[in-house]
Amino acid sequence: MKSTSKVEQIKQGLADGFLSKTRTGFEKDIILEALNKKQLRPEKAADLLGISRRILKYRMAKYGMAASLGTVRLRQENPEE
Questions:
Q1: Looking at the 3D structure of the chain, how many domains does it have?
Q2: Do 38 and 30 meet the contact criterion of CB atoms below 8 Å apart?
Q3: In whole angstroms, what is the distance from residue 18 CA to residue 14 CA?
Q4: What number is the average pLDDT over the span 26-45?
Q5: In-domain check, residue 4
């Protein structure tokens, strides 16, 4: 059985997109927390995060969050992706 070093394991994790998935989850959590703190109002959440409303809306769309009628919901993620 071949033993792999920590460096090799980290390289494999990077190749598998581990950091990308971790960052995505972190950004989603931060956005949702800001929206919850600001009563689901994207303009106020953007101010809290220190980003423009345009950037917040872009990231919400990127992560499958839709803002409609004062509520924020997550679209169901495709498990095949």
A1: 1
A2: no
A3: 6
A4: 91
A5: no
